[in-house]
Amino acid sequence: MSESMYTLSSSPHIRSKDSVQSIMRDVVIALLPATVAGIYFFKLQALLVILTAVISCVAAEYIWEKATGRDISIGDLSAVVTGMLLAFNVPPTLPLWMVVIGSFFSIIVVKQFFGGIGQNIVNPALAGRAFLLASWPVAMTTWTVDGVTTATPLAILKGAPGELPNLASAFVGHIGGCIGETSALALLIGFAYLLYRRIITWHIPVAYVGTVFVLTTIIGRHGAMSGNAIYEIFVGGLMLGAIFMATDYTTSPMTKKGQVIFAIGCGVITTVIRIFGGYPEGVSYSIILMNLFVPLIDKFVAPRVFGEVK
User: What is the CA radius of gyration of the chain?
Assistant: First the structure.
């Protein structure tokens, strides 16, 4: 009698009506307000960068899976999300050929080399940004507002020449920065949608932003209790990172307790880099570093199986 052969995928084995495609579709929808804001403030340059990143990420995934004989998975929209997030993390003036290189690095080196979706150990878009920043630091730190080269608010807080925008401009997004990080308003709209759709929970974003707020207030850039915590939240990549990248299923802890620990770690590292580091922004590096600790966090905070003896 013949026996049927079954392939058992890696855990966790969860029965849910949500598919990868439906989850990624909701993430794309949540990213649309920030996409519109980025195109509004940075015009055609932003649109070209976003389109280039998305097309390049999808192409990289297709080419790799075709070349290695794997099932083609571009229909799950995960490469689209990676492309959008990578574009959100670069300045609108970045040459398009650099965007292509960053996209291929994110998909092939960071994602596919580790086995594809669900197997990567760090966030692909953030790793792509870090790679571009290390390779072309000048191009990755040049921003414009209304066609004029300017320092970002975080750089001004760090000591660069310039005048800080008012809080209203910072909240709406009329400031220098990467394409998807400038409008806190647009990002919060996306956050509300993700909560409504139950794609993410509040634990990581709130704990991450809250940690930065508290530490920045206490430590301050010019001595104890001298921090401008509101600016630290509304400018830079904190809102983008806390809502859309620190919450990545693959590279964040499974339990709520673990997620809070993870987020606090991100907040501490972000604050330390922003205040004491040589670079004004620390969100990308903080999330990447904490991604590496996720297996350890899960090991110590995951609930024990009933009957298990330590």
Answer: 20
